Amino acid sequence: MAQKKIASLVVILLNLGALLTALACPYCPYPTPPSKPPVLPPKHPPKVAPPKPPPKVKPPSVPKHPPHVKPPHPPTPPTTKPPTVKPPYVPRPPIVKPPHVPRPPVVKPPYLPKPPYVPKPPIVKPPYLPKPPYVPKPPIVKPPYVPKPPYVPKPPIVKPPYVPKPPYVPKPPIKVPPYVPKPPVCPPPLPPVVKPPIIVPPTVPKPPYVPKPPIVLPPIVPKPPYAPKPPVVLPPAVPNPPYVPKPPVVLPPPVPKPPVVLPPIVTKPPPYIPNPPVVVPPPLPPIIKPPVVLPPPPVPCPPPPPKAVPYPTPAPETCPIDTLKLGACVDLLGGLVHIGIGSSAKDVCCPVLQGLVDLDAAVCLCTTIKAKLLNISIVVPIALSVLVDCGKTPPAGFQCPA
User: Fold this and answer.
1) CA 371/CA 329 separation, integer angstroms
2) Secondary structure class of 346 (helix, strand, coil)
3) What whole-number distance in Å separates Cα of residue 333 and Cα of residue 347?
4) Inter-residue contact 155 to 274 (CB < 8 Å)
């Protein structure tokens, strides 16, 4: 409402201002209207238009089709609306308000007086200490100037005289001995296997069914009646003790440190040692190895026919010594496949196999060859020939156990 009154008051003041400006000078003369310019004769004669021809009169139009006459509209019968029946008036049930329950009174805590005002102690400033006297820094002593040693040029590099390469000598072809097939191995006949009869245990009938006893639940004990908790009684509030300020900390006066005087640094240049000339030795002539001729492998004799012996329980063939001792011997045998057997294989393998029987030595070599994952069909013949050189005679037709 106050804004509307202010707006209407502003509009009235604007209208009054416009009216006062209009009535401010009622006796002031009005400005005279400007005079009309004199009418001059036309420079050119006026143009006269030619007379227009008479308008054409159109003949009366005859309608092509007779006018369409609409038939008379039949009168609409009067409509009667059924009377509206209003339902009987049913009064609304009265609104029943719940009874007024007064709010519990607000219990304020007891008034506690404020502690007495204790003024803060004055701030004690440390005593003024004058600045220590100014001590200028010692001058920097530079080492004396040492001139550089005179330049000594390096001696020229003396290259050895050129030695031409010897003529190329092709290697002789390696003679491979002819292939000798192995004799057939005839295993001893196996005795017939006799299986023991299967003994089925007698069937034991099941015991008769015994029903489980019914489950007896304990009686239900009713809960005790609800007992409200007693109100919590708080102890009276104890006022805080008065504030006691801490005493000020008095620092000792600072003691200036004496200046550190460093001795002058004197560097001595190392004596100049010229590099000796590089002398390249002449190249050695190539080493020509003599061709290696492999001896023909010994042809084993065919084994005698096996005798009929009752089937014994076969004893497992195991190596009686540690196979790690034969590792260097087997590595050397694996490298002699394409070269041939020399004295180095005997020197390495014979001391290790010295205390073993012929069959045990062959089994130990087979076990070590399998552990090294070497080709058994190639390395085993070389290993058997080494055993013969060491004084061991393996059985005829020996093969590594599976």
Assistant:
1) 13
2) helix
3) 12
4) yes
State the DSSP string of 63-91.
-SSPPPPPPPPPPPPPP-PPPP-PPPP-P
| Residue 355 to residue 320: CA distance in whole angstroms | 10
- Amino acid at the residue 203: T
* Contact (CB, 8 A) for 329 and 364: no
Rounded to 5 degrees, φ, ψ at 46 are -70, 145
Tell which residue, 127, 116, 125, 119, has the closest CA to residue 245. 119
Gyration radius of the chain's alpha carbons: 69
- CA-wise closest residue to 143 among 271, 262, 269, 267: 267
DSSP conformation letters of 277-331: PP-PPPPPPPP-PPPP-PPPPP-PPPPPPPP----PPPPP---SS-GGGGHHHHH
What's the pLDDT tens digit per position in 50-92? Answer: 777 777 777 667 666 666 777 776 777 777 777 888 888 888 8
Q: Report the pLDDT value the prediction gives residue 341, as an integer from 0 to 100.
A: 52
What does pTM read for this prediction? 0.24
